[in-house]
Specification:
heterodimer; A: alpha/beta; Nucleotidyltransferase, domain 5; 8-stranded mixed sheet; 5-stranded mixed sheet; 33% helix; B: 375 residues; mainly beta; OB fold (Dihydrolipoamide Acetyltransferase, E2P); Glucose Oxidase, domain 1; 5-stranded antiparallel sheet; 39% strand
Chain lengths: 617, 375
């Protein structure tokens, strides 16, 4: 923002309105550097009785005021700029409140432009309700009925490479015009329709749809068969989302007037920070932000940034959808005790209908973390299959790839090349023990060879992302010093062996010159504490059939970075990683790994799980 | 701490409520401001454009798309009946004729010179919106609908499925902790909004459907049964459009949970009265909870203050319900609100409160895991 002079900023208040919780942080300049001072939070208030997102913002700010012992609010107004010890110089915010963006997309060939359109919409954070295509096997009247029934927030119409078919594009536009679709949010406005197809069909589309919908034309998302150009369509989706959908979230219009910096959607802001780390450190990064309604995955490989938003995978509003998508057995496989299916199903649904509750007993925490593993895994699967290059622009695909579109992302997201895996979002950032976050990420992402793990300590990546647009130095300083918690490094040989047979031998040269020799059998994990800021030289000697980056059975010399958890040697196997099929064996393995990493307190099932206030019966 | 926000559901004996009744697209409003309406009164009407059928005329006629228009035997805009010929072409010196028959009754909507498709639109589908509750029209939204105001008992559920329904309230259990059983459902339930106690199964719901009940209101329901009832796993709580033959309103949550005493007592007090119910639930932006409204239009306007107690912060003495394991569903009174963060069994440090469950049982619970209940 040209009106904001970074040098004059002494204090910044930043909020992130999540679908469940609104988080506020106060950043101040202390001497020559910027530091996080306090953080407050309050439930997001889109629900009755408030139905106004700003109420939750004010509640979170009031908590900041209390904790920091300083006045920021004058009634319901944020005092800006700072006057003495009152107020702040800048207020900024991100938001993912407002519910999901529900879209319908359309292309000519379902597996080609249809899928490209789907990637564009998903990448922009939408729930894709349906993909309508000329060859989707439905009769025209069935398609029309479907379009009419869906009532999406927005439609993305694509189809045809530039210079290619116009008749099929015209057919889709005609179907759309005939359906005369209405927007989900009522009679008030015209349904936004983005056309991102064959440029030769623009006039036909204008003629068919002009006046009936709010038509926006942008560049073809598949200009030639071998190349996608998703950026412009995604940008348009984003613009229209802010303009039409977010603005309908209760209180959102008011919030927009409180800040001089445009409110950024949470995933966009987190993406900015992830991209910055990768660029500045020259590394391959995956970042994940698991929220109440959505899970966002970000990756930077070979300098190419990708982002996907799994709109219906989350830990509160969408928790039941995780169950629906992955199935109960996949959740239960991470739970190291017996639980009745009926009971588990009810617990998950109760979390869905009362999304702000938190696990009180250890059993509940373990179940929640089991669900989180599956939400993360599914979101990552979606990311791998939908990852596209260069911020959605110009990802090259060969003709042969076009027949296997869904596998196309795998060439970009290489787990064996991954340097840093960063987790964010309540279930990871607020895990009572950091090792829990580390294991959840290892289980869900299955990083290979050598990977450093980190979490966003108190979940402030979104606020720092938006701050980086105004004051990059302040954002980076707070990110490095107060936000990112380095958990340590994982070493995971790729390969499969016999349970208990040797898989990896390690010579570790620890700080102080102590040398430790380890032999880690297949099917087990080993934790070696190594403090934050320390590093250890390691010689990794994988057994025949296992690869740590130099080829099967080949030795590798590396420097491993420590962290609050330490060094994790994960010899549970990769490609594939498989939990024992036998129930008792699976539970025994989970216990073994949990104990090695000190994941949970010794007592895992509670007879009397709640403490009672001292001195009271 | 800052303003403590504890979500809760409204359960109130007498309150004033307004409900917007709007058409899905512009139409005609049939009532005027000040009109007294019953739940069944149609307040607005419109016509949805009919379904569209497309006919690939170019293919059927064996002509180029741009020539289809010339082959029409009826002009665009003309009405056709099912089976009627609306386009014709001749080939081989006029010896062979190809014809296009209308697949449905409707009008010829358009002809595409690009695709060669002819679109036929079926007759419009009338759409009506009723008042949903007995009350008075207090606002007209020109061309789209009205706002109806009513006064009466208002109870929000936590989760529901199925659409709006109307019927007289009928208690099928004697106490809030008694499950609704098949034996409790009989012919007397026809056209009624049936109140159960703690629990209902799909089997019992099916019996209620066959007995002609309009809705079932109950404390708890199993997710397992919900999947049976819907035929799929519900992923996101956006409901209300299911066509199940019955509306289900769950007041407490998933599992077998006695209905809150106050809810049960209020429902009992409404026995035999006409109630409007809706199962529509949406637990994301623009929250919507299922509801039961029993209009009491003749009651004096005083007494509204007995409304929901959920809008303040928590304080000692407040009645709360635990909404998460391990004390899920239990009721108690707040006995302490320690300001400092306290560790839970999970080792997480959170803001807590102390609750007395009666019988001397007390526990520390995360503040996030209780909801206030009107006392």
């Amino acid at each position: 923002m040209s009106t904001i002079d970074p040098e004059t900023l002494n204090s910044v208040l930043a909020t992130d309105c999540g679908s469940t919780t609104t988080k506020a942080i106060l950043i101040e300049r202390r001497g020559s550097e910027y530091r996080l001072i306090v953080r407050g939070e309050a439930p997001t208030t889109v629900e009755a009785p408030f139905e106004d997102v700003t109420r939750g913002v004010l509640n979170a700010i009031m908590e900041v005021e209390e904790l920091a012992g300083r006045k920021i609010l004058d009634g319901e107004r944020i005092i800006t700029p700072q006057k003495g010890s009152e107020g702040v110089d800048l207020y900024i915010s991100t938001s993912s409140a407002g519910g999901g963006l529900q879209m319908m997309v359309s292309g000519v060939v379902k597996s080609m432009t249809g899928e490209s359109a789907q990637r564009a919409a998903l990448g922009a954070g939408a729930i894709v309700m349906d993909v309508i295509a000329s060859n989707d096997g439905r009769l025209p009247y069935e398609k029309i009925k479907r379009i009419r029934h869906l009532r999406p927030d927005m439609i993305l119409l694509s189809g045809g490479v530039d210079g290619g078919t116009t008749s099929h594009v015209a057919e889709m536009a005609e179907l759309l015009a005939a359906a005369d679709p209405k927007a989900r949010l009522g009679v008030g406005y015209e349904l936004p329709v983005i056309y991102a197809g064959n440029k030769d069909a623009i006039d036909i589309v204008k003629e068919r749809l002009g006046g009936k919908v709010a038509l926006v034309i942008t560049e073809n998302l598949r200009p030639v068969l071998e190349r996608e150009n998703l950026g412009p369509a995604r940008d348009k989706i984003h613009d229209l989302f802010m303009e039409h959908v977010m603005a309908h979230a209760p209180g959102y219009r008011k919030l927009m007037t409180w800040t001089p910096v445009p409110i950024m959607p949470t995933p966009g802001a987190v993406g900015l920070i992830i991209e910055t780390i990768a660029r500045e450190e020259g590394i391959q990064v995956i970042g994940v932000d698991i929220g109440g309604a959505t899970t966002d995955v970000f990756s930077v490989f070979q300098g190419v940034f990708n982002r996907t938003v799994s709109a219906n995978l989350g830990m509160s509003y969408s928790v039941s959808n995780v169950l629906a998508e992955t199935g109960l057995p996949n959740i239960l496989r991470w739970v190291p005790f017996e639980i009745e299916e009926r009971d588990l199903r009810n617990r998950i649904k109760n979390k869905m209908i009362r999304p702000t509750t938190i696990p009180q007993s250890l059993e509940e925490l373990i179940i929640e973390q089991a669900i989180a593993r599956e939400a993360l895994r599914l979101a990552f699967e979606q990311h791998k299959s939908l990852a596209v290059g260069l911020k959605g622009v110009q990802q090259e695909r060969t003709i042969s790839d076009t027949f296997e579109q869904t596998a196309s992302g795998e060439t970009l997201v290489r787990l064996d090349h991954l340097d840093l895996l960063v987790g964010s979002g309540g279930v990871l950032s607020h895990a009572p023990r950091r090792a829990q976050a580390a294991l959840m990420m290892l289980d869900a992402f299955l990083p290979e060879h050598l990977t450093e793990l980190a979490v966003d300590s108190i979940f402030m990546a979104p606020q720092l992302g938006v701050l980086s647009t105004v004051h990059p130095r302040a954002a980076k300083e707070v990110f490095e010093k107060d936000c990112l918690v380095r958990l340590g490094s994982s070493v995971a040989p790729v390969g499969v062996g016999r349970d208990g047979a040797p898989a990896l031998r390690v010579s570790l040269e620890l700080p102080g010159g102590r040398v430790e020799e380890l032999s880690i059998p297949y099917g087990s994990m080993k934790l070696v504490p190594l403090a934050l800021g320390q590093s250890a030289k390691a010689t990794l000697r994988p057994e025949k059939g296992f690869d740590v980056g130099e080829g099967k059975g080949k030795e590798r010399q590396v420097t491993l970075k420590g962290g609050v958890v330490g060094l994790i040697f994960d010899c549970r196997g990769r490609q594939p990683f498989r939990l024992p099929d036998d129930r008792a064996a699976r539970i025994a393995k989970l216990h073994l790994w949990n104990e090695e990493l000190g994941i949970y307190p010794a007592r895992e099932r509670s007879e009397s799980p709640t403490p009672v206030l001292a001195g009271r019966a | 701490m800052a303003h403590s926000y504890t979500p809760g559901l409204k359960v109130t004996s007498l309150t004033t409520l307004r409900r917007e009744r709007k058409l899905p697209l512009p139409g005609t409003v049939l009532v005027k401001e000040g009109d007294r309406v019953t739940a069944e009164t149609i307040v607005a009407r419109t016509e949805l454009p009919g379904n569209v059928q497309s006919v690939n005329a170019a293919n059927l006629l064996g002509v180029l798309p741009e020539d289809v228009a010339e082959c029409l035997t009826k002009p665009v805009g003309a009405a056709v009946v099912k089976g009627e010929v609306f386009a014709e072409s001749r080939s081989f010196f006029g010896l062979f004729r190809s014809k296009c028959h209308a697949p449905v009754k409707g009008t010829l909507e358009s002809v595409s010179a690009v695709t060669g498709q002819v679109l036929l639109r079926e007759p419009p589908i009338p759409v009506e919106v009723d008042a949903y509750v007995d009350g008075t029209v207090v606002e007209i939204h020109p061309g789209s609908g009205v706002t109806v105001e009513t006064r009466g008992t208002f109870i929000q559920g936590i989760f529901g499925v199925g659409s709006e329904a109307l019927g007289s309230l009928h208690l099928c259990v004697a106490s809030p902790d008694e499950p609704l059983r098949e034996s409790g459902i009989d012919e007397t339930c026809r056209g009624k909004v049936v109140v159960g106690g703690s629990y209902v199964t799909t089997a019992v719901l099916r019996k209620a459907i066959s007995a002609g009940a309009k809705a079932v209101v109950v404390g708890g329901f199993d997710d397992h049964d919900l999947r049976d009832l819907l035929g799929y796993d519900l992923g996101v709580a956006i409901t209300g459009s299911e066509e199940l033959g019955i509306t289900l309103i769950v007041t407490e949550g998933f599992g077998s949970i006695p209905m809150a005493d106050r809810t049960f007592e209020l429902l009992k007090a409404c026995e035999g009265r006409r109630v409007s119910v809706s199962g529509a639930t949406q637990i994301r932006a623009g929250v919507l909870r299922p509801e039961i409204i029993a209009p009491r239009l003749d009651e004096a306007r005083t007494g509204d203050g007995a409304g929901s107690a959920v809008e303040g912060g928590l304080k000692t003495g407040d009645l709360v319900r635990v909404i998460r394991q391990p004390y899920f569903g239990r009721l108690g009174r707040v006995t302490a609100l320690p300001p400092e963060l306290m560790p839970l069994e999970t080792e997480a440090k959170v803001r807590v409160l102390e609750v007395d469950f009666g019988n001397g049982g007390r526990a520390l619970l995360p503040r996030a895991n209780v909801e206030m209940i009107e006392s």
